[in-house]
Structures are given as structure tokens and as C-alpha cells.
UniProtKB/TrEMBL annotation:
One of its GO terms (biological process) is tRNA processing. PROSITE patterns: RIBONUCLEASE_PH. The keyword RNA-binding applies. It catalyses: tRNA(n+1) + phosphate = tRNA(n) + a ribonucleoside 5'-diphosphate. Homohexameric ring arranged as a trimer of dimers. Its EC number is 2.7.7.56. Transmembrane segments: none annotated. Phosphate binds at residues 85, 123-125. This is Ribonuclease PH. It comes from the Bacteria.
Length: 231
């Protein structure tokens, strides 16, 4: 039995509260247990300056931050220099969401996904990806309604979940206490059809076996299927 009484394959109670911010074209408060992340999606006309002029497509990028009171001890705001962890998570969110959208169909526009962690209890990056997808869908719906786009450039839904080895057993959706003592740590991002976008799995101590890796994937896919069905 896990710390909070869940089964090994059981994810925490989760929810997506849409239209959470008045001024954002797409916004959602995503909650997985005590982890709460506010995710907003915005769009600007024009593509990034680094993209070739002849390239007629758009871009999607992401920003991520932990609010000072989101953790058990106050964390500093990253005003001038981003930590390696923050940069890694931003890149993960961005490339995960780019995998589900046809950037050429988007046109020469730039979408920014902002994920702000209000309360952290494990799994903030995967919660940000799930919330990012929901916020992105809301933004696209708004662009279609306003006549900016004729149809949705989204290819298929995506979802994400954490998993790992804890006390020698494979579990999904780790809370902070489990994550901080895990023997292996995974972040998995999949499409609805089961294609892999990201499968990050790292041994934190003793190396793990292929059969354990396979079990991590199996439990993660079942969890992601459940999350996607709730969008």
C-alpha cells in the first residue's frame, strides 16, 4: 500500500478547470492530488526571428515556473537566470506540445504555453503538459471562432504521467514523498494512439530491468488513456 493508500496503478484524483483566467484565450487549472498548476495559452502574429523567412509555419514554445510558496520552503523567483531544471522542463513541455500540432497549418504565428505551479507535490511537469494540451485546445477553438483559422491544426490528443520504482515496485503518478525516495524516475508523454513522444526513465540508485521498464510503460499508458478520456 502506498503512502496515500492508492494502488500501484492508481493515479491521484485529477481535474481540469477550464477558462480559469479571464484574459487568456486558453487557460486551465490542472490538479493532480495536491499538485496544482495554472496553464495559459496565448498567441502572437508572426513567427520567431530565428526561423527562415521562406519557412511558412508557426511555432509553439513554453515557459514554466514555480511560484515562491508552491513548495514546503519558499523558492526564489527566477528573475534573471533560469535554473537548469526550469530550462529542461520548459523544453519538455514545448516539444511535447509541438508533437501534437501541425505547425505549418498554424500559419506564421507563435503560441506560448505558460505553466505556473501554484502548489507542488510531485508531477508538476507532466501536469503542465496535460494542462498545456487543454489550454492549447481552448486557444485553437477561440482562433477558429474568430475566423483566424479555418480548422484545427491539432493532430491528436496527448497526455503525460510520472511513474517509477518505489520500494522495488512500479507505481504511477508519484507524489513528492514517493518521488524523492524512488529508485527509478520516469516521465512519459504519449499520443492518444499510443505513440511515444517522451519516455524519460532514470535509475536513481540500483539499475532497473527491462521487464520493469516494460511495466512502467504499461501502467503509464493505462493512466494516460484515462487522463485523455477526461479532457
Amino acid at each position: 500500500m502506498r503512502i496515500d493508500g492508492r494502488k500501484n496503478n492508481e493515479i491521484r484524483k485529477f481535474s481540469f478547470t477550464r477558462n480559469y483566467i479571464k484574459h487568456a484565450k486558453g487557460s486551465v487549472l490542472v490538479e493532480f492530488g495536491d499538485t496544482k498548476v495554472l496553464v495559459c495559452a496565448s498567441v502572437e502574429e508572426g513567427k520567431p526571428k530565428w526561423m527562415p523567412k521562406e519557412e511558412k509555419s508557426g511555432w509553439l514554445t513554453a515557459e514554466y515556473s514555480l511560484l515562491p510558496a508552491s513548495t514546503n520552503t519558499r523558492c526564489q523567483r527566477e528573475r534573471t537566470k533560469l535554473s537548469g531544471r526550469t530550462q529542461e522542463i520548459q523544453r519538455l513541455i514545448g516539444r511535447s506540445l509541438r508533437a501534437c500540432i501541425d505547425l505549418e497549418a498554424l500559419g506564421e504565428r507563435t503560441i506560448t504555453i505558460d505553466a505556473d505551479v501554484l502548489q507542488a507535490d510531485g508531477g508538476t511537469r507532466v501536469a503542465s503538459i496535460c494542462g498545456g494540451y487543454v489550454a492549447l485546445c481552448e486557444l485553437i477553438e477561440s482562433l477558429i471562432k474568430d475566423g483566424v483559422l479555418n480548422k484545427s491544426p491539432i493532430i491528436e490528443p496527448i497526455g503525460a504521467i510520472s511513474a517509477g520504482l518505489y520500494n522495488g515496485e512500479v507505481i504511477v503518478d508519484l507524489c513528492y514523498e514517493e518521488d524523492s525516495h524512488a529508485q527509478a524516475d520516469s516521465n512519459i508523454v504519449l499520443t492518444k494512439s499510443g505513440k511515444i513522444i517522451e519516455f524519460q526513465t532514470t535509475a536513481e540508485g540500483i539499475p532497473f530491468s527491462k521487464s520493469q521498464m516494460d511495466e512502467i510503460f504499461t501502467l503509464a499508458k493505462a493512466a494516460i488513456d484515462k487522463i485523455i478520456s477526461a479532457y
